[in-house]
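During the reporting period the student researcher (J.K.) took over the structure-prediction task from the postdoctoral fellow and processed the backlog of single-chain submissions. One of the processed entries is reproduced below for the supervisory committee.
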Amino acid sequence: MDEGEKMKEAITEVKEDPQELKEGKEVVQEEKDGKEVVQGEKDGKEGDLSWVNTFEDLLEVVGTNGRWNILMFIMCVTSVAISPLQTLSYQFLGATPDYWCHIAPLVEANWTDQQILSLAIPYSNSTGKYEGCQMRNYNYTAAALLGYEATMKDPSLVQHGNTTTIIKCSARDFNHSQYSSTVVTEWDLVCDRRVLYSTTQGVVEGGNIVTCLVFGYLMDTFGRRPIVLVCVVIKILTGFLAAASPTLEVYILLKFLVAATDAGTYLSIFVFVMEMCAIKYRAAVGCLVAIPWAIGYMITPGIAYLVRPWRWLQFAYALPSLYCIIYFWLLPDSPRWLITEGRFEEALKIMTKIANVNRKPLPSDPVVLAAMENIVKQGTHEKGEELTDREATIMSRFLAVIKQVVILLTIRQLRLRTLVVFFCWFAASMVYYGIALNATNLSTDPYLYIFLGGLLEVPSYLILWPALVYIGRKKSLVALYLICAVCIFAVMAIILVYPGGEHLAKVFFSQSGKVAVTAAFQLVWMYTAELFPTKYRSLAVGEASFCARVGSTSSPYINDILGGYTVWAPAALFGTVSLISAVLSLILPETRHCTLPESNDLFSKKKDKEADRGGSKETSLEDVRQGVVNLSYNPETGQPGAERL
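J.K. obtained the following structure tokens:
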């Protein structure tokens, strides 16, 4: 008899002879539905886990707030602080100093930068700076022979014809006293090549899009731990290799891989933390996970201030990723996932370790294995229809995936709601990253600007809860988008009225708008989960997240390309998008005090009291707008039950 058959026989014996479950001496009591459940006797008998039907029940047995849970949470969320170092670094890696056309004859004649600017470069009164991509069409060889003073006394001596024309130039000089070495200065990412600079940040968000599309499937297929470890290895290698990139194309490719694997690590860790968290702690944990992001946000400009050359700066940003190596020894796979996959022995080892660290007594192995099998049976009973997916052909599964992607737009009652939610996600992400990375167009200190942005992340999260409790989801979202729009329009007005001045006022209104949109971004996560039925909830959040990534991908192009033509244009666009989002949010229903819709067919006919009397009642869209009692909301604590996914 092999080991597997012995294990099955042991489980069978435990099920067939419940009396054997009472041979432990320990009494472990658990509150379940307001009653105490006795799991054993204090006379040397083993515990009884026949009441365990879900993983949450099993988690209560090994402990939900012990030393293992706390240490694992700290270990996991610490890595969240590493993510902003790569996500928000492009303004420092690609810092753009003052630049002007390279004029070889004057440089070879040892003219100073200021002398070259005075003679050759037009001055813009609107921006208060010299033009970086244009120069006067002079005979600079003759100017070099005449000398600076003689040429400036009579510039007509070096003119081509009777008038001075302005032409574009193909090469530039940079003011290296401002920044000694950046991605921009090394690969000339200005003027006609400015779009390539925006692409260095665009690929970061593109990597996040790949994460949304791919890593969820990979985690469900291979588990959380393997995906984390693969992502950690690739992230560390590509992070350091990016610092040694020989060409711009290689640099962009490596930054894409860094972003994708960094987001994959974050997503896998987040899912693991939420799966190992008791239901009563999930709302708090979902919010606390965001705090390390704010800390990393503030650290990002600090590192850049100390390390200026871009290659060493990229190396410094990659260095903290080495912390994630500890996952190879300390991070287990998710026992919840292992149980659903039928890998009971592996899950048993992890659960035993958790119980030991938490100093919780655990029944014998056959008892725990029987409980795991019961959990799987309960889940299989609830999801029996999904088992047929494994037997489907590749083509049928592909068509099913395509149908699932667009299903939210094919349901009449959900179509408008879906489009509004998608736009709100798109707007929140675009405006958030647009404001966060817009220091250049505001002509302010990027180090201070981004540090303040990180510092104000914390109050953004804190103001949200009282707003949800006393105002509700819908009114809060509308108000936050309106506040953001007003603040960003104020920035636009200041730029128009006081070009090149009033830096303090621009920073104040810009950061005020960011506080509002940060809170709106946090709210829209939870709001989306409450707006859609269980059958479509994960799909809605996933597709909305994809829309958000599209918005964040567009932000650097808006700031760098559109802002390069008209400095106030990005603020005008961000303010307009925020205002539109506020108006569209009025269409959404209020979900405060409403239950999360659980039905797989929310808008089909449902039985109610009228149906019990022989009639039936169809759920209308108006019924959905009104909502019903929300069991996920606790009026005594004033805390929402839905957490950020």
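The committee noted the following: The two ends are 46 Å apart (CA to CA).
J.K. will present the remaining backlog at the next meeting.
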